[in-house]
Amino acid sequence: MSAIDLVGVRKQFGETQVVRGVDLAVPSGAFLSLLGPSGCGKTTLLRMLAGLETPSEGEIRIDGAVVNAVPPGARDIAMVFQSYALYPQMTVAQNIAYPLRKRGVPKGERAGRVAAVAEMLQLGPLLERKPRQLSGGQQQRVALGRALVREPRIFLLDEPLSNLDATLRSHMRAELIELHRRIGRTMVYVTHDQLEAMTMSTHIAVIDGGVVQQFGTPQQVYRRPVNRMVAGFIGTPAMAFVEGRVGEGGALTLAGTRVATVDAAPGATPVIGIRAEDVRLAEIGVPARVGLVEPIGHETLVRLHCDAGIVTARLPGDTAVQPGEQVHFTADAGRLHLFDPIGGERLTDPYQGNERDHG
Amino acid sequence: MSAGVRKLGWSLLAWALVLLVATPLLWMLSTSFKPENEVFAVPVTLLPEEWTVEYYVLLLTETSFPRYFANSAIVATLTTLVVIALGTLGAYSLVRFRYRGREAIASAVLLSYLLPSVVLIVPLYLMMVKLGLANSLASLVIAYTSFALPYALWLLRSFMAAVPEDLESAAMIDGATRMGAFLDVTLPQALPGIISTALFTFILAWNEYLLALVLVNADEVRPLTTGVMTMLVSGFNIEWSLLMAASVMMSVPLIVILAFLQSYLVRGFGAGAMKG
Ligand SMILES: Nc1ncnc2c1ncn2[C@@H]1O[C@H](COP(=O)(O)OP(=O)(O)OP(=O)(O)O)[C@@H](O)[C@H]1O
Ligand SMILES: [Mg+2]
Fold first, then answer.
1. Where is the ABC transporter domain (chain A) (predicted)?
2. pTM, 2 dp
């Protein structure tokens, strides 16, 4: 059964359409990441789930029951706000205890639960401080603590780790995964960071322009992005897009070199998407000139300029290429992504002979 | 060195200003303790040569001053309570809820504040007569409320707008009702603004003269401002010491309140609970 169902949900503020028809069924116990560029409506979507905004159209169901008219306090959810929204006049301890106090948890039990959360988030020494006496990262942890102190049906987390340093961030990431595994509650997690989304989630929804572009497991979204927007958004370095050309017999060429066979009419010019890790240097292949070379330790990112555009390659760290050098590169046909040059939708997968690789 | 001189200069200027403002008040205080023959004595005495509380006793026992004082206290307190109650909720609605004509209402409020009070006196008086409220403390409370409320709304609106909406949203998710969120989160944040507004309203009601003159003319319901004037003009000769004693007594409540609330006023906002 799904924990959350969104059916044709729309939201507009005055004339501005912010969410333009979202359908989503989030399985119970899922860790769903909402991923998308700034301003695409992630926070708005979360606020509608929380009951802070009413959808202009459509239906929101939690555990099968329509909650459009249910006030936030009665939805049994917890939320971490992008802005933290800590109560300024309360201490850290009072902030974390507030949801318990409002729900009538006895005082003795409150103290114990606050202490447990403070332990997990390393907030112990800060409990008596006011929010304004905390750094950004500390405030963020308090906000997280206020959400984690209860065990609601659903957690809504709006970029809860954005302001933490790298160490604390990976620590918190691990804590969240562990927490999710332990209590098995549904979590909706908003992030800009696609790496975070890939590593933490069971499901990803890529959002752009107020609609869900793709919903699936991290692997599905990574392996088979449904359009150019998703393909470009997921993965670092970003997928390279170059112009391909279909010749006689479905021969797909890239800068004049045949790279795959496709099921398309001659003369078509699909956009070929290539991920950096799928590119290899080879004796025979697409001729290219080496541009920027970025050694990042165990591997080296190399920009390859070919006639059809620029492709980034992720090569082993010991690769010795110099900028300006002429090389040839190739990629498995099964790893190429083809997109419509106008609409950007994914086209049929290329294949070599009978072999098809969907990853 | 030059910094020290500059600082000294500023201090001197500040003290000169303070003196300028304070002298009449100190003079008033001093005069109120002088016996009658000393008030106009030449050479002028800075402090009373002979201290007397005779006029304070007289004021409190022989005149209607206590009555006026009570009236003023009732009117100013009620006005403040009504204005703060209506102003807080009204300002909250103007800031938080989206409805048709919200901006129009906000502008209308400002506009009505800009209207000179003189033009409203006669209509107000006629209305009070129609309502059967003429010559009552209630008429003063209503009139003062109508004058203070627009300003209060405008002031409180900006204070409420400064309270981030996410705070309330968070409280509602945490299980508070909208009213609970308002009380737990918004009100404490807007408290400095509410206190300033309350102070402004109280002072306005306490010092108001013109409306009181028109709306009430019975001794039982006269506030201090018009009351003391009546005392003054009804005698053959003006008892300056008595008047000064009355003035001192009139100022005391305001001074006490100001001293009490000053720490709130300067404390300002609790900043920095939100990102950015
Ligand atoms: N109350 C509002 N009134 C008008 N427009 C709004 C309102 N709230 C959000 N918007 C607009 O809706 C769009 C989506 O906002 P939202 O906050 O959901 O974006 P987001 O995906 O969370 O972005 P970010 O990643 O930067 O947080 C933005 O263009 C924003 O300007
Ligand atoms: Mg956002």
1. 4-234
2. 0.80
